[in-house]
Specification:
By secondary structure, the chain is an alpha+beta fold. The chain has two domains: 42 residues, no CATH class; 32 residues, no CATH class. 31% of the residues lie in helices and 10% in strands.
Length: 80
C-alpha cells in the first residue's frame, strides 16, 4: 500500500488546529472563523452555534435521521 493511499477524517486534529489558531492570533476560534473566513466571502448571515440549546433559536437547518429505512425529523438532542 503506497504512503497516503487513503484519507482518514480526524476530529481531534481539527480541534487541535482551532486551538493552535486561537493561541497564535490571541482571539477565539469562533471570532477568527467569523471575521477572517465568513465575512470576507460575504456570508454575513451565517452564525456559529456555541451551545446546542441555541440550535432552534437561531433558525438553523433541521436535522434528519435515517432510521428504519426512512428519513425522520431529528430532535435538538442531535446537536448535543
Amino acid at each position: 500500500m503506497p504512503f497516503i493511499d487513503t484519507f482518514i477524517h480526524n476530529n481531534f486534529m481539527y480541534m487541535l488546529l482551532g486551538h493552535v489558531a486561537e493561541k497564535l492570533d490571541g482571539d477565539t476560534w469562533e471570532n477568527l472563523l467569523t471575521y477572517r473566513v465568513l465575512q470576507p466571502i460575504g456570508m454575513t448571515s451565517s452564525k456559529l452555534m456555541l451551545k446546542p440549546a441555541n440550535a432552534y433559536q437561531m433558525k438553523t437547518a433541521r436535522p434528519f435521521i435515517y432510521k428504519d429505512r426512512m428519513f425522520q425529523n431529528g430532535t435538538k438532542e442531535i446537536y448535543e
